[in-house]
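Lab notebook: predicted structure, single chain.

Context: the supervisor wants predicted structures on file for every construct in the current expression panel, including those that have not yet been purified. This is the next one on the list. No modifications to the sequence; it matches the entry in the shared construct table.
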Amino acid sequence: MFLLRIPAGGQPGPGLSVTACAMPEERTHATATGCFSECRPRGAARNDWGPASAATGERRRVGIDYHVDIDSHFYSVPHRFARAEVEVRLTTRTVEIFARGERIAAHLRSSGNHKHTTVPDHMPSSHRRYADWTIDRIRRDAVNIGPATTALCELILERRPHPEQGFRACIGILRLVRPFGAERLEAAAARAIEIGALSYGSVRSILDHKLDRQAAHQRPADGAPIVHTNIRGARYYH
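Prediction complete. Output recorded below exactly as produced.
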């Protein structure tokens, strides 16, 4: 068991700075600068701010998406620690994550809601471009294009271990509406579903080679594509 000191009664004392810590939401962002590094009254010595509160320690493996699963909630660490083994120290209110004795992340603790707490500074620069996107926005934009695009994005999100891993593919697909238009993107999305090619690269290839203009299988009257469990993979068609 490890000891982590917090203010007496579990409440922040005067001058306590905790606002920089990532707050638990579906896709929460916060600045990592100073995150829990100054969680004590300014000017006070490290051991002068109340009795210690017990913290438990556990070993965990960071996921490929640089988040650690702790009681069914996912907390970010700097992306360079993806797949690394880390030590997690927990209290009822906080989560601290260490690698080789160095603290690499600190968060306010959340309930097991299968959501993510993500600090933008932990993200690779390529991921930060998508920081303003959410699952709800992806779904809303897909619906505006059509039922096939909506179905394709839902499949991509559902078949990733964490929906955030499907963000880039979905965002790339949605942006294809600009050069190709909604009608062609809808046809390409339907064809991608039919051949089991659930990726941005596959949809782009269908559009580039004008395969979306080939006759598609018969669909329901509402225009939504038929999704079969025994669809052949994309390699079958190449």
